[in-house]
Amino acid sequence: MNVFFYIAAAVAIISTLMVITRKHPVHALLYLIVSFMAVAIIFFQLGAPFVAALEIVLYAGAIVVLFIFVVMMLNLGRETSLQEKTWLNLATWLLPGVLGAILLIELIYLISTQPNETLTIAEIEPKAVALSLFGPYVIGVELSAMLLMAGVIGAAHIGRRTIKHYHRFLQEETK
Amino acid sequence: MPAIDLIKLMPLIITSSGALIIMLMLAVRSGHKTVEIACLLVYSIGLAYLSKPTFVFEDNLFVVDGFGKLFMGLILFSGLIITFISYAYFNEKEENPKVYYVLLLLATLGAQTLCISHHFISLFLGLEILSMALYALIAYLRTRNYAIEAGMKYLIMAAFSSAFLLFGMALIYSETGTMDFAAIANIIKLQSKISPYLIMGFGLLMVGAGFKLSIVPFHLWAADVYQGAPMPVTAFIATISKGGMLIILFRLLGLTRLISLTPIFTLMLIIALASMLVGNLLAVRQRNLKRILAYSSIANMGYLMAALLSIDEDGLQTATLYTMIYFVALLTAFGVLSMLSTKERDADDLNDLKGMFWQKPLMASIMTVSMLSLAGIPLTAGFIGKFYILKSGIDTGQWLLMFTLILASIIGLFYYLKIIVALFTEAPSSAAVPEKGHPVYYFINLVVMFLLTISLVVLGVYPQQLISILHTILS
């Protein structure tokens, strides 16, 4: 259905605009999740449910993991829990919540009206994706492994801290 | 893909396993010298393998033909030279120099992938491997201000241009239904009127390609990144990274003859004209050698696009010849500059070269020959390259392009000669020349640079053999 495409696309554009205009990174990330979900809905509608699932699992999921990391690392006591409360007040999560709810309604409608007659493209199953990834395009998968290796090694070098070895007595003196 | 076909992709396998082996060597804390020699070995094995004649191999992602092997050889050769000059340069620096070689090999792998790709997927993967390794390489000396700035600039620009490239690919794919270069060309040639989506797709594709080649109007990063990167990495960006993208253009637009189509031809014509003029004009007022070479590379990419435009009269062969000559001249120049660099700073100011002839006559002569070749003076290889570009351009009757090329070369002569003049001026004062810490490596580097210089002169006098080799490969 064309209407659904436009709704999801509008949600994607609005949320992405909010991502780049937010000052607080946590707020921006909230909108980024909504943006990914909207893109996933578009994929789902086009007959690519597998890509839609990947979009949620890989992108939105990765950001949620990031959230958990931040919460884990910052969970230091009462002040931080107060700080979290100010980060996530009603005004902050209302708009992402509304946008997410729109997407949810759309998704429920789309699933309940399956099979989708408006679909013009053949649906692609995960099995077909796997067969082509590890069949004719296996070199591509291996090259992406090298790509990740380059990324990891580069990040490790740039982010490395030089460890200073002080003698324990000398360190006390400098204090 | 059956396992037997993997052997056909041996050049890629050699480089990638080399990177893995060096990474493992880092784990057992090998010395800098061992790691560097291992890296040299990887490049030499790759080159030795390429010199063996093999049959043309083609599958859905790659095509290993003579053209690809030639460019791969060129890239591995440049990598070998860059490894030679890296040891003395990085050994004195504050950073641990060993990770550098892993990243160098990975970036080379990306460029090699580009050499043999004839499909959008392998194009994009190769490009990303190359860029990903380059981000870290550019910011390698990460405590220096310029390095981080250059790295960030490259990261943002590369990511942005990748997005354009992908969108262009998507448009072309949606219009033709294939990602194979030859198949795309066949479908486009069947169309009586080229659809606007395709033109837009190729335009966006050229944004991505143009960024990597730093052609006008996508050249803004070049000078800052060249200046901020360590000297061997600058040499890498100037040669290998551009070589990888060049062969993609040669394959996508040249071998398939897509460049003869009017919209693409006009697009490339404008880019070529602008690159030649803007690059040379911007270089005139510069005093920083890295920035001069950056702007000169913009102009040289313009010359190459001009060669590609005269595809009907051996344009591809001319472009390949020019690429090879340009690479050798640039490697020589960067080799000398990195030998002059000290622990604290790169020798990238014009004043660093003042009076060098009276102190280090051999190095000054090497630099002179390299600059003359870049300027295209007779008896050096650069002249032969430019001569053939002019010849094929005039044969196809593109007068505007050729007159611009001549005008641009005259402007270019000014700043190349400025460098040469600096080499031969009176030495400022007999300031104490810092003692080089690596006499053996210094000597080896000097010998390598000397051999490259000899090859520049020999190619300038007897180019016939190389041209006939190119002719057999490309026809």
Automatic annotation (TrEMBL), chain A:
Gene Ontology CC: plasma membrane
Keyword rRNA-binding: no
Enzyme Commission number(s) from the entry: 7.1.1.-
Keywords annotated in UniProt: Cell membrane, Membrane, NAD, Quinone, Translocase, Transmembrane, Transmembrane helix
Origin superkingdom: Bacteria
Keyword Cell membrane in record: yes
Enzyme class: translocase
GO molecular function, one term: quinone binding
Reactions performed catalytically: a quinone + NADH + 5 H(+)(in) = a quinol + NAD(+) + 4 H(+)(out)
Pfam families assigned to the protein according to its UniProt record, in alphabetical order: Oxidored_q3
Chain segments annotated as transmembrane: 6-21, 28-50, 56-76, 88-111, 131-158
Protein localization: Cell membrane
Membrane-topology annotation of the record: Multi-pass membrane protein
Purpose: NDH-1 shuttles electrons from NADH, via FMN and iron-sulfur (Fe-S) centers, to quinones in the respiratory chain. Couples the redox reaction to proton translocation (for every two electrons transferred, four hydrogen ions are translocated across the cytoplasmic membrane), and thus conserves the redox energy in a proton gradient.
PANTHER family (alphabetical): NADH-UBIQUINONE OXIDOREDUCTASE CHAIN 6
Subunit structure: Composed of 13 different subunits. Subunits NuoA, H, J, K, L, M, N constitute the membrane sector of the complex.
Sequence similarity: Belongs to the complex I subunit 6 family.
NCBIfam families for the chain: PRK06638.1-1
Name under which the protein is recorded: NADH-quinone oxidoreductase subunit J
Record organism: Solitalea longa
TrEMBL record, chain B:
Top-level taxon: Bacteria
Stored NCBIfam families: NDH_I_N
Enzyme class, broadest EC rank: translocase
Keywords noted in UniProt: Cell membrane, Membrane, NAD, Quinone, Translocase, Transmembrane, Transmembrane helix, Transport
Function: NDH-1 shuttles electrons from NADH, via FMN and iron-sulfur (Fe-S) centers, to quinones in the respiratory chain. The immediate electron acceptor for the enzyme in this species is believed to be a menaquinone. Couples the redox reaction to proton translocation (for every two electrons transferred, four hydrogen ions are translocated across the cytoplasmic membrane), and thus conserves the redox energy in a proton gradient.
Domain NADH:quinone oxidoreductase/Mrp antiporter transmembrane, chain residue ranges per copy: 117-411
Catalysed reaction equations from the record: a quinone + NADH + 5 H(+)(in) = a quinol + NAD(+) + 4 H(+)(out)
Matches recorded under PANTHER family: NADH DEHYDROGENASE
GO biological process: ATP synthesis coupled electron transport
Membrane topology: Multi-pass membrane protein
Gene: nuoN
Subunit structure: NDH-1 is composed of 14 different subunits. Subunits NuoA, H, J, K, L, M, N constitute the membrane sector of the complex.
Record-given protein name: NADH-quinone oxidoreductase subunit N
MF-aspect GO terms: NADH dehydrogenase (quinone) (non-electrogenic) activity; NADH dehydrogenase (ubiquinone) activity; quinone binding
Subcellular location: Cell membrane; Endomembrane system; Membrane
Alphabetized InterPro entries for the sequence: NADH-Q_OxRdtase_suN/2 (IPR010096), ND/Mrp_TM (IPR001750)
E.C. no: 7.1.1.-
Chain segments annotated as transmembrane: 6-27, 34-50, 70-90, 99-114, 120-142, 154-174, 194-221, 233-253, 259-283, 292-311, 323-341, 362-385, 397-419, 440-462
